[in-house]
Amino acid sequence: xxxxxxxxxxxxxxxxxxxxxxxxxxxxxxxxxxxxxxxxxxxxxxxxxxxxxxxxxxxxxxxxxxxxxxxxxxxxxxxxxxxxxxxxxxxxxxxxxxxxxxxxxxxxxxxxxxxxxxxxxxxxxxxxxxxxxxxxxxxxxxxxxxxxxxxxxxxxxxxxxxxxxxxxxxxxxxxxxxxx
Length: 180
Hints:
Order of helices and strands: EHEEEHEEHHHEHEE
Radius of gyration: 15 Å
Mean pLDDT: 78
Number of strands: 9
Shape: globular
Low-confidence stretches: 42-53
Helix content: 25-40%
Strand order of the largest sheet: 5-6-2-7-1-8-9
Distance between the termini: 26 Å
Number of helices: 6
Structural class: alpha+beta
């Protein structure tokens, strides 16, 4: 398990999560140290899919404009069909951590592929279960990774964007702090 300092914020809507991303970007936070996760909505009326054109990820679906814009700001993007959660879209370094957990056959009892990716960076299992539950109820996760100071700065900015909760996961102690 390679641990990293992270802060995770949970948002009720995609517009709240998007505003938080933009606020972090305006403040100069390194976009390569951020990830976002959200569930897609499968409906009979919308085509759902994604494709890569050069360095640009394109997405069709109910929230295509949101994900198309988000993927343009982040490094890497992916679509996963996760049993128990459903179709999930991920942008940022978390994509590589999920793929690493899958390729490394990291099996953590009761956790999804997403959960295994979060757990692999030092997020405790009880927090992972809480984040998976938030996704199941159509909330969005915004993660910032970095040094202790970068994560503290991101947490302060996230607090101003009205998340449901914000929790810091510190690598040094393996402990979580600041749940809200």
